[in-house]
Design goal:
It contains 4 helices and 3 strands. Helix 2 (33-90) packs antiparallel against helix 3 and helix 2 runs antiparallel to helix 4. It is mostly helical. The structure holds zinc ion (ZN) (2 copies).
Length: 141
């Protein structure tokens, strides 16, 4: 029995001592119980860092997305304003022109009213998941 125990001992990949080891299926290395804990802690830290990176990437994406769509809306509004003024100046318009301009404005208003809500809605699970970690707190409405 003692012999069998003795035979079970193998070299730990970290401390290089002959001990009872546990195989990590992820990296196929063997660790003694102490180093296995350390190994697991290392993996935990790596995953936590990824989690933070992911949160920051998402935040960056949302900010950039919002900035881009705000920019687009601003440009569209400016264009429409110019077009409306031009139509008035030319004094050459009928219901069709007015209808067209009205439609354009309605479209912009819909975009103004919705995309922020849509993207916040899409990201809601993410915001809920990360709201306690502090990195995306400023995303909350
Ligand atoms: Zn060890
Ligand atoms: Zn491993």
């Amino acid at each position: 029995m003692a012999m069998a125990m003795e035979n079970d001992k193998t070299l730990c990949d970290i401390c290089n001592e002959e001990k009872l080891t546990y195989l990590c299926e992820g990296c196929s290395k063997k660790f003694c119980s102490m180093d296995l804990t350390e190994h697991h802690q290392m993996l935990t830290n790596e995953l936590r860092q990824m989690d933070i990176d992911y949160a920051q990437d998402c935040k960056k994406f949302v900010m950039e997305y919002l900035a881009t769509s705000c920019n687009n809306i601003q440009m569209k509004l400016a264009d429409l304003h110019k077009e409306t003024k031009q139509t008035l100046n030319d004094n050459d318009f009928n219901e069709i022109n007015i209808h067209y301009l009205k439609n354009q404005l309605t479209e912009i208003r819909q975009v103004l009213d919705n995309p922020t809500k849509i993207i916040i809605k899409d990201l809601q699970p993410f915001i809920t998941q990360y709201k306690d970690n502090g990195t995306v707190n400023d995303l909350k409405q």
